[in-house]
Amino acid sequence: MTPDLLLHGGTLLDPATGATRRADLLIRDGQIARIAETIDADALDGDVPAYDCADKLISPGWMDMHVHLREPGYEHKETIATGCRAAAFGGFTAVACMPNTDPPIHTRDVVEFIVERAEPLPVDVHPIACVSKARAGKELTEMADLVDGGAVAFSDDGSPVQRAGLMRRALEYASMLDRPIINHMEELTLGPKGHMHEGDVSTRLGLQPVPALSEEIMIARDLLLAELTGGHLHVAHISTARSVDLVREAKAKGVPVTAEVCTHHFTLTDEAVEATAFSTDTKMHPPLRTAADVEAMKAGLRDGTIDAICTDHAPHASFEKEVEFIAAPFGITGLETAWGLTGRELIAPGVLSVAEAVRALTIAPREILRLPVPTLTEGAAANLTVFDATTPWTFTEAHVRSKSHNTPFLGADLTGRAWAIYNNGQFVTAD
User: Fold this and answer.
1) Is 52 among the catalytic positions?
2) Is there a domain that residue 276 lies in?
3) Residue 359 and residue 265: Cα distance in Å, rounded?
4) What span, in angstroms and rounded, lies between the C-alpha atoms of 217 and 279?
5) Is residue 228 part of a domain?
6) By CB atoms within 10 Å of each CB, which of 18, 299, 309, 344 scores lowest?
7) Which domain CATH number covers 30?
8) Residue 9 domain-assigned?
9) What is the total count of domains within the chain?
10) Can you name the residues that pair with 393 across neighbouring β-strands?
11) Could you tell me the CA-to-CA distances from 256 to 148, 185, 240, 307 in Å, in that order?
12) CATH number at residue 191
């Protein structure tokens, strides 16, 4: 525990307005006690450790609203503790975890287990519960009871809600509870056994494809249902240009829809599968798309069609990924590299400003999930991230904090570092 701390010489960033100011920030008993241009550490009562924030920014703590922590049931891939360790290294003070665990997060006891397990950690964990019992797509879960237990949203992530009638009822019930439905956008009959994006590369490689249309048809259906019911639809891991257009058009009509994009979907294309000679670290769901789709993700972030940046952090053990491409599970880790990719792909080229990128990692995800947004104000609980957007660095094995190492970005040059977080009375550095 680090109840008292002085952050010295940093620049405070308000992502809501983009305003910055040079200031020292004093934390006492886990709360922001004082913000001033200069605070003399020697004049403080007691021994208060100081952290040098010169040339660094300080913002409200970041949140990744789409991660897989694997516990309970798949602790050989990741645990709540190791996933939060990776999150802290990446600059995140909060995550929302998906329900494809074993047992799935479809009963209140599992929700409460996750909340209790995460309670002593420096990273807040918010469970996303199942839409349907056992994620089977047949019967709705006890949504009100799950919310009472701590669930912040509903999703069968990894398994799309295929039945339109069930999705309609889910949106209706969730709207009464003021919670979003997060659907895995895929019409399974269009690509039931696909391994990568349908296009020139899949044809050349001879791999069974996943067409862009399978995502777009499901989004179109769900947007119509959201318009009908008034329920909040959140589009998970959007990945195609037409999907972005559909969400943009729906927002213009006033449909209650929000969307997120994963860092790998604005960074890599399907050509990475060929370039890496079928590395299973390039296999994810939805798959890597085309260069035009990557540009559409950036355009969607720039004009506000896409609200949040996430990772879909999906750890797998090495023995699961070190197989033939068609036998490997989908998914890559992403918590440790999220900010470095955001800096390299979005901030450095001018797609987003630093404040806009931070907003997509702080305010947007919490507003979508109806969570309070931390602030850098005196008297508030200290929940913050120390970072910069310019430091060049190379991501190596030494930086991996997740239990699994299935990432295509080992050896990648990144831009911008998360240096530390403070949350729940704990100070964690990326050393």
Assistant:
1) no
2) yes
3) 19
4) 29
5) yes
6) 18
7) 2.30.40.10
8) yes
9) 2
10) 414
11) 23, 16, 20, 12
12) 3.20.20.140
Kindly indicate the confidence band of residue 192, based on its pLDDT and cuts at 50, 70 and 90.
confident
Confidence class of residue 45 from pLDDT cuts 50, 70 and 90?
A: confident
Is residue 151 located within the same domain as residue 213?
yes
- Report whether pLDDT(42) > 90: no
Take residue 361 and report the two structure tokens written for it. Answer: 């990692």
Residue that is written with structure tokens 């890599």 in the block: 268
pLDDT on residue 191: 82
In this prediction, residues 228-235 reach a mean pLDDT of 98
Marked catalytic residue, from 312, 388, 413, 431: 312
Please check whether residues 213 and 194 belong to one and the same domain. Answer: yes
pLDDT tens-digit profile of 378-390? 999 999 999 999 9
What's the CA gap between 398 and 160, in Å, rounded?
Answer: 36
